[in-house]
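Chain X:
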Amino acid sequence: EVGEPFKEEKAVAKYLRFNCPTKSTNMMGHRVDYFIASKAVDCLLDSKWAKAKKGEEALFTTRESVVDYCNRLLKKQFFHRALKVMKMKPDKDTKKEKEKGKAESGKEEEKKSKKESGKDEKTKKEKEKKKDGEKEECKKDETPGTPKKKETKRKFKLEPHEDQVFLDGNEVYVWIYDPVHFKTFAMGLVLVIAVIAATLFPLWPAEMRVGVYYLSVGAGCFVASILLLAVARCILFLIIWLITGGRHHFWFLPNLTADVGFIDSFRPLYTHEYKGPKADLKKEEKSESKKQQKYDSEEKSDSEKKEDEDGKTEATRNSGTEGSGGERHSDTDSDRREDDRSQHSSGNGNDFEMITKEELEQQTDEEDCEEEEEEDTESRSSHEKS
């Protein structure tokens, strides 16, 4: 004989009932909640009973200990084991569907044979190419990274199992224990107190009754004002729409009846839209301005490209002149570095000029000659003075 459950067992069952994930289905004409055994074991291993207290051992240490405790709960009829039975379609419907499919496939084959007989070989080759392309696309779609199509869920029903044992796995167990949650209990208690207070309204003090009366009148006026505003805004919209011939769309408090919060229902104060010929002209002007901006940007880009090409051609010409005067230039590394530096300075837009080595030597010779002439003039002037 199975005795009554202890307080600890009730507490564990209550924790499991409200914390273990459950699903609902029909079983023998009744709506029931069921859970999976492996999830129940995981839930109890994460509970407070799986942690050791001071001077006491933990109630649940391993999965086997949880299974043994759940067997005790099953024997005390907190839940019972059920069996999943997949729903199968009747044989008559399947036979009819097969016959219909065969007949349709035979008709399609006959049509295809007639069409293919009248076509040329070119069309056949095109079909083969298309089929090959579709096969390649199918292969690409079958890669592991591509998402698969959603599989249709198979329907099933629950039936009571003959072997009532708790097993750790994908076994299904239906709840019999259905305690009342604290939130539902609190809500029910508040509702009962409110109903009793409302029935005892004549016994309330006079000041409270007068305050409740004014509150009810204020709430009624507020609701009536919102309804009047909703009607008035529609009338105002219609008047403006008829006067302007459908060109002006003016809404006062557009979010008053929208599915938003209390404060957002009064924002914005109004909205106005003009739907006339000028609006179309403005749209066209905006589109034209956008097109002009695009054309200007494209022209700028083309001019920049031309400038870059001109710079490149000048650089190539300079390099060609330097290559033609290969006899004048030396092949040493120092000369090449000087030429590169001069090219960089000209390319960067600085105020430097390209100078060859021969010109540089001529400039130095001229400077030396000028210095010698100055020295000769100075010596002659000194002789004349003496």
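Chain Y:
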Amino acid sequence: FLEFFKELLENAEKSLNDMFVRTYGRLYMQNSELFKDLFVELKRYYVGGNVNLEEMLNEFWARLLERMFRLVNPQYHFTDEYLECVSKYTEQLKPFGDVPRKLKLQVTRAFVAARTFAQGLAVARDVVSKVSAVNPTPQGTRALLKMMYCPYCRGLVSVKPCYNYCFNVMRGCLANQGDLDTEWNIFMDSMLLVAERLEGPFNIESVMDPIDVKISDAIMNMQENSMQVSQKVFQGCGQPKTLAQGRTARSVSESGFSARFRPYNPEERPTTAAGTSLDRLVTDVKEKLKQAKKFWSSLPGNICNDEKMSVGTVNENECWNGSAKSRYDFAVTGNGLASQVNNPEVEVDITKPDMVIRRQIMALRVMTNKLKNAYSGNDVDFIDISEESSGEESGSGCELQQCSPEFEFNATEVTGNSNKSDKNVNTSAATRSGLSQAALLLSILFLAMQRQWR
């Protein structure tokens, strides 16, 4: 998405520049910085800059009116103060017709949706990354060790854990992760809603692709109504001073503002950004978002469905139940921390939620609100997300100079210190095994996540 949107903006700028050079020649070249500034600000907004889109677009049309007013009235001398007065009449006179109003609406909605959606993808990535770095508790490590290796002590080397036994162990080990599910699903629904905005009439591709034609239509509208506009401005701002005759003739000759705009033929347009189309990108990512729903609640099942982890649901009497080769009789506990109060396999302190995961829940909640605002067409503050959800630390994991500022959602800082309670494991052998099992659990989680995201 980042590659696509950036290239889309670059193509739109190149298309406008090429067509305006061809149509208006030196006249455009002398005023090209006005249009370059427009695209600089659009790009700056997209990558998270503090840009008010409406104010920026109003400023663009006011500056364009000042330049145009000089060109259509080359016989007069205009001071900077006079041109400031002219710009005040932009809204009242509508010298560019209805183009500025329509373009402002289209650009604002398209950019708000595109930027917020790309930011949402970054949030999903960062949440998964940070949660997958959470260390298992010593109790979870012991339960996993007992489930995977204690059958060997009984000589049951080929017997795998019972399916429901595995479920209870994983529900206990992933108790905090299970609490992510509700907010994660709401977040995914909000992402899918904003994705609809990327497919509708205000999608960024359909807005940016013809922006050169729209701006040229506005310029031609000003040309055709220049006399009426000028007269109304003269009435409001006063009659300007006339230039000397020789300078007037030279100014008229230099302006030559009679060119007519000819848009590109379809085959002349730049190739589609990133070699794809927005429709294809959105269709693909929507499918992935739908698959990612209920990811955290289904994680224990995804792990236990692996044939290396349990026997599955077929041989319920021929499996390791934690003490013997027999049926597992305990009921399966629910998802989430509160449901583990009666977990028979993992001792879980439900009064001490994992703060890393709690901060990710908060991060998802903050981003969901921004997505809902974007869906309604309201601009959202890009920069203050980290302030609202990071806790004490930025959590980016890199120096400012080295990190791209684009879509870095700093939800939390994950500490790498081992839990001090690891020291409570009774023997050094058990400690070594426990640590190896912690690594195994993280590997299992990573593989399960990777498989589901594919």
